[in-house]
Amino acid sequence: MMTVDPTGPVDPDLVEMIDAVFAGYRDTHSAGAALDNQLWTRLDDLGLVRLTGSEESGGSGAGWYEAAELLAAAVRHAVRIPLAENDLLACWLLQANRMPVDGAVRTMCLLDDRGMAYDVPWAGAAERIVIVWQAGDGYYVADVAAQSLVVTPGANLIGEPRDTVSADPVALAGTPVGAHLVTTLTRKSALVRAIQVCAALDRIVQLSIEHATTRFQFGRPLSKFQAIQHLIADIAAEAALARAATEAALATAVRSDWSAPNLDFLVAVARSCAGQACSVVVRNAHQVHGAIGTTREHRLHEYTRAALAWRSEFGSVHYWDEQVTRAALRAGSAGLWSLITG
What EC number is given for this enzyme (predicted)? Predict the structure, then answer.
């Protein structure tokens, strides 16, 4: 679970309610990658599908700390649903550009110069797609009905829709959007995945500890074996580092309204740490669980495969490693500390 900054406390009752909704859903449903319309309606009734939207536009008026708790709870229970894509990305962009927002399920994408967008999350399940493209020196945005676009199905490692979207920008009625909003959209997209990866890593650590303390070998728990202790210590440390980096980026983003001069660096660090942690956590967790961890019946794969899938979305691990390196080199020895601390 994400740690809550004291300047942005999350109501414990909200956290409990969110967790109970997803836990209740998983009591009667297996982990699936298709959008469950009944669950979406339930979350909509509770004001969760547009948790951070303004109340004037039909949202619940909450903030990113609450959204982080919502995303983490969905991950903990392995519920696949486009809450981030709808609320934090697509609807936020419309609202920020003073465009109307209704109750449709949305996702968003950024077209390349050929009018293509690849690995678009949940495009095939969305009713509308918020499309951003560059024309000349400016950017434009359009809220488009999904059925009017060419959407080619695809999927990530856990089967979530990651589709290809093709559009002709010339035929779209685009609204000019400031470049700063596109930059913020990029930051938010990246941080969303860092939050989700961290939640998956935390759940993997929890499952590994539970397995090691309850599984007996040679008359004693696995947790008594030094090799197992080292494996779990390593994954706990890696998960904690990724979470600390992500929380630091989130706190700076919220405090500065996504405008801090070192925010790009902090987001890159969060993504780099989360991406690198995945390798250690996934490998060690499967070693701790042994053969049972490779079975479909055990829930470990719901989190290990998710972490591996998400760490490469909205920028690969290599890409974020490069961003950290380049920012550090630009800052030099004299400016590195201020880059880290802001």
Answer: 1.3.99.-
179-341 CATH fold: Butyryl-CoA Dehydrogenase, subunit A; domain 3 (1.20.140)
CA angle at residue 159 from 157 to 164, to 5 degrees? 90
Q: Among 133, 135, 159, which Cα is nearest to 144's?
A: 133
Taking the C-alpha atoms of residue 289 and residue 94, their distance in angstroms, rounded to an integer, is 45
Domain 12-177: which topology?
Butyryl-Coa Dehydrogenase, subunit A; domain 1 (1.10.540)
Task: Quote the CA–CA distance of 122 and 62 in Å, as a whole number.
Answer: 23
The residue whose two tokens read 């004037």 is 56
Q: What is the mean pLDDT of the chain?
A: 93
Q: Which helix (H) or strand (E) holds 164?
A: strand 162-166
Helix, strand, or coil here: 166?
strand
In the predicted structure, residue 305 carries a pLDDT above the cut 70? yes
Contact 60, 46 (CB under 8 A): no
In the chain, CATH 1.20.140.10 sits at: 179-341
Q: Tell me how far apart the alpha carbons of residues 229 and 226 are, in angstroms, rounded to a whole number.
A: 5
**pLDDT value for 57:** 87
The DSSP output letter for 255 is H
Packing angle between helix 263-289 and helix 317-341, nearest 10 degrees? 130
**Per residue in 159-175, pLDDT tens?**
999 999 999 998 998 99
Ramachandran quadrant class, 59 (left: phi over 0; alpha: psi -120 to 50; beta: rest): beta
- Measured between alpha carbons, how far is 189 from 84 in angstroms, rounded to an integer? 8
Which residue carries 């696995």 as its tokens?
Answer: 222
